[in-house]
UniProtKB/TrEMBL annotation:
<dbReference type="Pfam" id="PF00437">
    <property type="entry name" value="T2SSE"/>
</dbReference>
<dbReference type="InterPro" id="IPR001482">
    <property type="entry name" value="T2SS/T4SS_dom"/>
</dbReference>
<dbReference type="GO" id="GO:0005524">
    <property type="term" value="F:ATP binding"/>
</dbReference>
<dbReference type="InterPro" id="IPR006321">
    <property type="entry name" value="PilT/PilU"/>
</dbReference>
<feature type="domain" description="Bacterial type II secretion system protein E">
    <location>
        <begin position="9"/>
        <end position="272"/>
    </location>
</feature>
<dbReference type="InterPro" id="IPR027417">
    <property type="entry name" value="P-loop_NTPase"/>
</dbReference>
<protein>
    <submittedName>
        <fullName>Pilus retraction protein PilT</fullName>
    </submittedName>
</protein>
<dbReference type="GO" id="GO:0016887">
    <property type="term" value="F:ATP hydrolysis activity"/>
</dbReference>
<comment type="similarity">
    <text>Belongs to the GSP E family.</text>
</comment>
<dbReference type="InterPro" id="IPR050921">
    <property type="entry name" value="T4SS_GSP_E_ATPase"/>
</dbReference>
Length: 397
């Protein structure tokens, strides 16, 4: 069994999100947002190159050598899928791998807002899922798509770079296209998507004006279009979209968004006291009032509207974090650290009579605190981690 196969199995076993291979450092694995070394051996460029050869085809490795970087997918039967990002740093190869579980999680198991199943069953419109890298947005959006797949006949078309979760055909037919393997580039795939008669289109990531314009056009033509975007929250997402376009095109863009947008869902993963993580989710659902604010590019008004719960089902990050804190799921420190406005969050807490010190409040009240998460023990329970006796991956000679 190759070293990379063992590393992939380790990621699945420990529910790790990423591994990092870099010259001059041991291999690191990230569990619940904490990165730790798996052994004491320092990697060198030649060893990393050997490991890359284990998982890349000859054609992929040539592309990596020529372009100095490569994004690709790798599947290990019974374990899961892996998103590879190979690159060079200081003249030597490096690799970051993201783990994608073999099974798509059920939407109802992810502790998400109750409105999301209703959102994904829409007939037409634009749904944006936003968040930072590693925030779980792909997992949430994939679970939403599979919820639709299980309940609604139709054709779901995905355009991904690379493919991550693997769908099974259920009530819908799901066709997944990977850039580089199934299509030359995003632009060609986007141009031909409507000819493939989809009911629902998923675009892996909106990166520029051209992709954004195509997403809006799909929604305008009577399709449900879903896409991810890197942004901190709903109004930041709208600001980013606006920035794609020159000033003279923005009024038309805002008018189109006001009509086509169904929802912007923003997600952050927050730490629970036991070391696991749970999503905190902001939801901005479109309504007549929200559409008017979008058309005016009134970001302050959008936030105020959400804070005042003027659209049923919408919620800010502060409201989501308040509920997690109130239920005892997270501590006060964790809630305030992840809020857009700690003052707004504290206002919600201080004006709610049902919240007590027992509701996950760190350092107060009589509730016994959960033991702090120890990432070392999560890898090697009971290990003397100072000398890595209990857990060491030995590289093949």
């Amino acid at each position: 069994m190759g070293t990379m196969t063992r590393l992939f199995q380790l990621m699945a076993e420990k529910k790790a999100s990423d591994i990092f291979l870099s010259t001059g450092s041991p291999i690191h694995i990230k569990i619940s947002g904490v990165s730790v070394p798996i052994n004491q051996r320092t990697m060198d460029g030649a060893t990393i190159a050997t490991l890359l050869h284990e998982i890349l085809t000859d054609a992929q490795y040539r592309e990596f050598e020529e372009s100095l970087e490569l994004n690709a997918g790798y599947a290990l039967e019974g374990v899961g899928n892996f998103r590879l990002s190979a690159f060079h740093q200081k003249g030597t190869p490096a690799l970051v791998v993201r783990y994608i579980p073999a099974e798509i999680p059920q939407l109802g198991t992810l502790n998400l807002p109750d409105v999301l199943p209703e959102v994904i069953m829409e007939k037409r419109g634009l749904i944006l899922m936003v968040g930072a890298t590693g925030s779980g947005k792909t997992t949430t959006l994939t679970a939403m798509l599979d919820y639709r797949n299980e309940r609604k006949p139709g054709h779901i078309l995905t355009l991904e770079d690379p493919i991550e979760f693997i769908f099974k055909n259920k009530k819908s037919i799901v066709n997944q296209r990977e850039v580089g393997a199934d299509t030359r580039n995003f632009q060609t795939a986007l141009k031909n998507a409507l000819r493939q008669a989809p009911d629902c289109i998923f675009i892996g990531e909106i990166r520029d004006k051209e992709i954004m314009s195509q997403a809006i056009a799909y929604a305008q033509s009577g399709h449900l279009c879903l896409a991810t975007l890197h942004a901190n929250n709903s109004y930041h997402a709208l600001s980013r979209i606006i920035s794609f376009y020159p000033l003279e095109n923005r009024p038309a863009l805002l008018a189109d968004l006001a009509v086509t947008l169904k929802a912007i869902i923003s997600q952050r993963l927050v730490n629970k006291p036991d070391g696991s993580r749970t999503p905190a989710v902001e939801v901005m659902l479109n309504s007549r009032h929200i559409a008017e604010l979008i058309e005016k590019a009134d970001m302050i008004g959008l936030k105020e509207s959400m804070e005042q719960s003027m659209t049923a089902g919408s919620q800010t990050f502060e409201q989501a974090l308040f509920r997690l804190y109130k239920s005892g799921t997270i501590t006060l420190d964790e809630a305030t650290a992840n809020a857009d406005s700690a003052n707004n969050l504290l206002y919600l807490i201080n004006n709610d009579q049902t919240v007590t010190a027992e509701a996950g409040h760190s350092g107060h009240g009589s509730k016994q605190e959960a033991p702090l998460f120890d990432p070392v023990k999560s890898i090697a329970p009971g290990a003397d981690f100072s000398n890595f006796k209990d857990f060491t991956l030995k590289l093949d000679a």
